[in-house]
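[step 3/7] fold_predict: job queued, chain A
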Amino acid sequence: MPEVSKTTIFNPTSAHPTFAPDIAGIYVISLTVNDTKTNGAPAIVTITASDTNLSITQAPFSAGSTIPLKFAATVVGGSNISPQLSIGDIPVGTDRFAIVMDDETAPCQPGLGACRHWGVFNLPVSKTLIGEGEDLLLQNGTLYGSNKNGTVGYLGPDATSQHTYKLTVYALAVTAPFLSYIPEYNRAKFEIDFKSYILGKATITGVYP
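[step 4/7] structure written:
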């Protein structure tokens, strides 16, 4: 749960435990059933609470639409240009953003097996408008992550059969670790490592080709 949260599970040993988040953030709860002899397998529940919803108010694709060719990788005839984004509805307490884009379509895998295509980290909260192909390394402290090819920076869609790509913007609390190395994050891994610091997130989805 968020680092500064003081909430707890009420009646945790009863048949009907309850939970109420006290601040915006992502809460991961583990529930285990015990029959007085053995423990059952834990059930993991993730709850996202926010006092406002982070949003992506401008993007070149969304809701499963086709990603324009210019944003695709050069290997499939694209220009490998990173997309423009406009970020809105920023949660109170946000200190900076992270952006992660990945592909979960086979041969990539869902979740932790997703192929990395773009990672931007330590992006200042003041940077809510991102231009097409903009060099975000000019923003103080910002880092690019490595993509699935092992290179650093944006790698556009490179599939020759239809794949689904998801791009998520994360709003992070001031207590989130400030990365000082080249990260290797897809969305699932980032959410595991930063779950205590995520105040909100917004995702857009596109397909290519």
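[step 5/7] annotate
The mean pLDDT is 90.
The chain has two domains: 9-49, 55-208.
exit 0
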